[in-house]
Design goal:
Number of helices: 7
Radius of gyration: 22 Å
Number of strands: 9
Shape: globular
Low-confidence stretches: none
CATH topology of the largest domain: Alpha-Beta Plaits
Oligomer: single chain
Mean pLDDT: 86
CATH class of the largest domain: Alpha Beta
Helix content: 40-55%
Length: 249
């Protein structure tokens, strides 16, 4: 084999390897693209799927959402109509969460559980979580316009956010495992969401302190609450905007 043939052979081998790599990366994106942000996907691809996401305690920001009257609506609407409406709502919200470097860990019926700052560390997790929550409440106008166009009722969502340490890792068995978080602060974030009304965002003092000066709160919306399972009273703050964006109403 002369030098020219050898070069052509190496070039062909290189093209084959590149095509195989692109095919593998595409498979990763198709498999995990619905669950992880682009940032985490790039980390998975870069490390050839060997990202360590198990067993660590980390400071994160936790976001919980919940739709108001969802149980009633599920009984009043046809199953097909309700799920069509719900899936559209979830897609709109998850797109925003991913855009702000959040990762959806779970859907609990119509509720969303998201974490900011994991699996990949993010020092701006509190700011990103609050910014995304404001964007989500603003997006509800478009969601309800879509609902009206399809003959569906208008819906409202409450959002609770808290920042603190949580235990994160792979939880489950050899048959089924998922990446999740556990701890007092996870429970507190859920309790905070339970104090919201439709259209509201309530955050803890820890989140407010970490989120930065772009967060706008309503002084009249501050309250002291006693969450179930939490010792003593804690202050909550009602977020009404982020930067130049204000929540409608």
């Amino acid at each position: 084999m002369n030098d020219a043939d050898r070069i052509r052979e190496l070039e062909e081998e290189n093209r084959s390897l590149k095509a195989a790599l692109e095919q593998r990366n595409q498979l990763v994106r198709e498999t995990f693209g619905k669950y992880l942000t682009e940032e985490v996907l790039e980390e998975v691809i870069k490390k050839k799927g060997e990202v360590r996401i198990g067993g660590e305690r980390r400071r994160v920001t936790i976001l919980f959402t919940d739709l108001r009257r969802s149980t009633e609506l599920s009984e009043e609407m046809s199953p097909k109509g309700f799920l069509h409406m719900l899936n559209h709502f979830l897609k709109e919200m998850v797109d925003i969460i991913n855009a702000w470097r959040g990762n959806v860990l779970d859907y609990v019926g119509d509720a969303i559980v998201a974490v900011y700052g994991a699996p990949k560390t993010n020092p701006d997790s509190a700011m990103n979580a609050v910014a995304s929550a404001v964007a989500m409440q603003c997006r509800m106008e478009a969601v309800n316009a879509w609902n009206r166009d399809h003959g569906y009722p208008e819906i409202a969502m409450g959002i609770g956010i808290h920042t603190g340490d949580a235990l994160l890792g792979n939880i489950g068995s050899d048959i089924r495992t998922k990446y999740d978080m556990i701890g007092r602060n996870v429970n507190l974030a859920s309790r905070i969401e339970g104090f919201t009304e439709g259209g509201q965002i309530l955050v803890s003092s820890e989140t407010l302190a970490a989120a930065g000066d772009l967060v706008k709160t309503d002084p009249a919306g501050e309250m002291l609450v006693r969450p179930k399972g939490i010792k003593g009273e804690i202050p909550l703050h009602r977020v009404i905007g982020f930067g130049r964006r204000n929540i409608p109403g």
